[in-house]
Amino acid sequence: MKKQKTEVYNFQSEVKQLLHLMIHSLYSNKEIFLRELISNSSDAIDKLRFKSISSPELYENDSDIKIQISINKAQRTLIISDNGIGMTKQDTIENLGTIAKSGTKSFLQSLEKKHNKQNELIGEFGVGFYSSFIVSEKVSVRTRFAGAKSVEGTLWESSGEGEYKITDIVKKKRGTEITLFLKKEEEEFLEIWRIKNIISKYSDHITVPVYIQNYNETNKTYFWEQINKAKALWTLNKSSITEEEYKDFYKHITNDQNNPLIWSHNRVEGNQEYISLLYVPEKSAWDIWNRDNKHGLKLYVKRVYIMDNSQEFLPNYLRFIRGLIDSSDLPLNISREILQDNCITQNLKKALIKRSLSMLAKLAKDNSEKYQIFWDQFGLVLKEGPAEDNENLSKISNLLRFTSIKSNSSKQELSLKEYIDQMDQKQDKIYYITADSYESAKNSPHLELFKKNNIDVLLLSDRIDEWMMNYLVEFEGKKFQSISKEDLSLNKLTEEKKIKNQELPNEMIDFLKKTKKILGDKVKDVRLTYRLTHTPCVLLSDSNEMTTQMAKLFSAAGQSVPELKYIFEINPNHVLIKKICLIHDEQQFNEWIKLLLDQALLAEKGNLENPHQFISRMNKLLLT
């Protein structure tokens, strides 16, 4: 008989940290360990189903797939076994000895920051197996990969202290068997009623039957009892599914402990046959802005699981949508590469985009409070929509929310429809301003005319806003207009008639001439304006040129930005301008004009190339 060979390995350093947290810190909801292990077993069976389409020999003449749970109170062990795909020796080392996923450090940091929600994060980061050590003093895993030519399997053992053992063993049946040697204080998990309760709570709707070994007192025999429904919820009639069942299924497929805000379950028959079940979460994923963020729908073909995170069915701006699609038209051997160029995929994508946007529109109409929760979590993601999806621009525009002058709050609650309904009769455009922050936008001198005339202006301060407004050209026939750019419609809003140069006082004519000479090519033009009330001067971008905010975006992205030439507008009614007009000292006048330009640049850009020169000039003039 071949002697068994045992090898000892050290855990990856991050796994050690994780195990320490599992063993010593996470006690608020211990039962999640069973949810994670059942979920892993279900995934292993799904992989077997998929791979056996092209390699039926993987079934090894045993297609009766199942998950089994047995209890031994005397030995204080809980055993979870499946006849899924199993693991090779190398798989075992890679999957149970290291965490290859790039998000591990983020996971550990999140655990430290969110002490009250640690257990909610476990499944989200794909480290569910290690939750076994919350209740176990030792864990052993016996596994063999399906279709192996021999019956040689692998035994993995660890007490979670820093190392694990690997032993070559004989395992006749494919799949994985996990034995938990429970801590003495965790004997509640040796009660059949407790296990049934957990399975019912977390795993009722997985498509694999889960059995528990029970004992018949009358016959004095053991028997296997199925304890979950094992029916694909999405295939059931909507009228037979309760609200709680929809919520529980969402939690099962996402590992999210929060309830979804809304969902949409649809069966489509005709040219294309498919079932979709889409959910809108209540909270955004921790890594939603990470480029490696895994998102997308679970894909099934004719009820057979194909893949997770299939991104081909929804655009990037809807990456927060969770759920699944089950198609009857796609081939069972579909790959990600084939999906991308498949016409059926493209048709399904159009239908699912429409369904997702309709679901959000329904939420906005029926429950403004819940929609506000959605917007606060995912508004920035949805703002990517106008640039990505011109075909659905109108629907996306209706879902956008803003703040404005009249809102008097940084909270984005105002829809474009509401803005238009409240528009001034003199107004023929939707006015907005972009800035680095809400406070900066709210206090911009460009707003003075609008405040004076009681005209509302959208205040945009998210980094994505300037980019979004390049694609958001109009809404319901009303064009968007940046109030920091030159536009004739802005002049129509003031009641005062623009005074012609020949009607100006001589000192104001001289003032303009001297100012243009001093500033030269630093500005595109110098002119008077009657749109200001409290500010002496302001800078406008030419209608055909890049805005200040867009220039900042380009610069932040490391791209070269052309030099911006502004139109320098001066308020002739401001007391400071009237005072400067009377200055005859050429050097002092020169300093004042440069100070005015620096002030306007600071207000427009939020910074100056040479702030020390500005301070020095200001101090000098204060002393004169």
From TrEMBL:
Keyword Nucleotide-binding part of the UniProt annotation: yes
Subcellular localization(s) per the UniProt record: Cytoplasm
Assigned GO CC terms: cytoplasm
Listed Pfam families: HATPase_c_3, HSP90
One MF annotation (Gene Ontology) recorded for this entry: ATP-dependent protein folding chaperone
UniProt KW RNA-binding keyword: no
Region annotation A: where it falls in the sequence: 1-336
Ranges where the record places region C: 553-624
B: region residues: 337-552
Leader sequence segment: none
Keywords of the record: ATP-binding, Chaperone, Cytoplasm, Nucleotide-binding, Stress response
Residue positions binding ATP: E36, N40, D82, M87, N95, K101, S102, G103, T176, R336
Recorded family membership: Belongs to the heat shock protein 90 family.
Binding partners and assembly: Homodimer.
Function of the protein: Molecular chaperone. Has ATPase activity.
Protein name, per record: Chaperone protein HtpG
Originating gene: htpG
